[in-house]
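Marked as duplicate of an earlier ticket. Keeping the data here for the record.
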Amino acid sequence: MKSIILISLQILLVFSAFGQIQRNRIGLQSEKIPVRWDEGLPLGNGLIGELIWQKEDKLRFSLDHSELWDMRPMQELHTPGFNYQWVKEQVLADNYAAVQKIGDKPYDREPAPSKIPGAALEFEVKDWGGVKQATLNIETAEATISWQNGVKMTSFVHAKQNIGYFRFENLNDLTLKLLAPKYEGSSGNTAGGPVAGDDLARLGYKQGEVTQSGQSYRYIQQGWGGFYYEVYVKWKKINPKTIEGSWAISAHYPNKPQPEAQKIVASAPSYSAAWQSHQNWWTNFWAKSSVSLPDPVLEKQYYLELYKFGSAARSNTPPISLQAVWTADNGRIPPWKGDFHHDLNTQLSYWPAYSANHLEEAMGYLNHLDQNREQYKKYTKWYFGSNGLNVPGVTTLLGEEMGGWIQYSLSPTVSAWLAQHYYLHWRYSMDKDFLKTRAYPWFKEVAQHLEEITYIDKNGYRQLPLSSSPEINDNKKSAWFLENTNYDLALMRFLFAKANELALELNLPTEAEHYSKILNQFQSYHLSDNKELNFSKDLPYNQSHRHFSHLMAIHPLGEIRWENGTKDQEIIQNSLKLLDKVGPAWWCGYSYAWEGNLKARAKDGEGAAAALTDFATAFCSTNSFHLNGDQTKSGKSNMTYRPFTLEGNFAYAAGIQEMLLQSYAGQIEVFPAIPQKWLQASFKDLRAEGAFLVSAQKTNGMVSSIEIKAEKGGKTKVKLPFKNHSIEFNKGVKVISQNTEFMELAFEKNGSIKIKNDAKK
């Protein structure tokens, strides 16, 4: 098969108050249909998804629903006496095999709990001749395939409704089948482990029945614990040469009524009628922000990432899991059970949402966390014996703990990292009600948990009983540390610092003072003699590793900042220099994406662009899916496997945004980390902390204009990239102070300002 070629499908001219930005909408196009499920053309809406590919001589739609889950409890995890304190006792007694038997091994051994696949549609196409073109238009979220005999297929998953559509033109008749996953009658290749995935037959289901009635199919599959799901597809002739159809999946849990798939299809509007509302949603999505880069590889990948985010995230659907709405269609349980990994994966998946101005889609993540608070509190009390709130590092759809490498799946600081997303939503939206009713209560309960489980050591420092650094030393006894690692230290320092900030914002001085007191009980970060961040006090960064856990204080937490001056700059520069020196032997694709963000925070545009280019060109499938390993086998990593997960894709998009706009340090800075050779670049309506929408343009190597709109009003500082400038005021803007480097501005709500470079060309 010829590789799918990333090309520009459409050029959209976006007009702004300060000029014209050319924005490339990038899609997928090939002269062949993809022949692997993980190279398929992806469509989705956060709840359901579709992958279009060719299996043998059939056109195949792999159908998925984000709520298809086997949620049986993980065996042995709740063995009486198993808890955080007992684990420490076994570590000290050199009896760690007993811990692994209960906490780690069942995750590898048992097939569930796990995400499960839906079904597939297969169409007979072998007599239609060769394929002329297979495309994915990400502007319209529609896939199109045309054949040599004139047949044309189009398909979309409706952006807002639980239904998918397909249309075949220039065709007299259509032969298709609805195929169920093989829950019985496996090939004999059973247990595959968490990466390869177990055979679906290991779940022990009785195979569901597919029934046909005229031009429709219905499939009902019973799962575990009273759960079942239904798939329904129906098609009909619209005219002698056009056939249209639609499909739906419905997930049914006890005591949670849901519309049945058959009824969804029966009441659905036609293809043409549904198209307009689908298009309205995507038009609005793309209008939120845009970027224009002189590097076609980076720009193409960026828009593909935003497209996938728009396909996988909604405020009213489950958050993005490892594969979101594109579960593996290979007869197996998906890699790492398709679960919610909170030791990195879910967090990275939402990094780009804030600056890209997609706060609404990101709310699905926070809604999920809030909906499962009682489950998290139950877990926190059981495992840690503490009040307050912590989240398991690996969970089911309902937030239940799954175990597996408990240093991370049962980490004591997971909720502190998740708290950052509450903080970011507050800072990027300035929604005072959200701060009061959701963000601050989360911080308060996480702080209670961490205060209760930590203790003051003989040196007066607050310590965790057991600390770790994902995923250093894997799941061995040596992966536990008896003094806070830089990873846990960064998260706890962040948590209490921001709890203090939020309490002051809400005029709660007593609570703020308490958090400040706790914060001051934590030690400083562990540094080498060369001012490099260590893993821990006694473990320097001395091994290539995929998870940059020791650098959390730089990014994403921003506790060590370039803007703080030479001391922090030295730590950042030396730590990243060592990261490059040790090398990427055991990096995944997401490591390169994360490195792009780190280099951007270090104001290293060349380094950021290089890391993100490596991600886009070596670690992605032909359809842009992140495949973890180096697909070029060119030495970018020793890992050359291809399990598909999404966090690397979205961390990449965040890296591009960090290159163009930074606001985490209390100031707005445009183009803080772009290569010198980028003489032309621009962006429109990227969102900054403080609920400011920022647009900027670079022309002939110089920043030519900056425009700032204040959604909620307030003050901000702008770093000035030019010496001579003129200002165009809209309503409600006042210059408080300015010098050659900064301008401080005060905005009323919806006030705006445009700053132009008046330097002589």
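See parent ticket for discussion. The CA atoms of residues 111 and 202 lie 6 Å apart.
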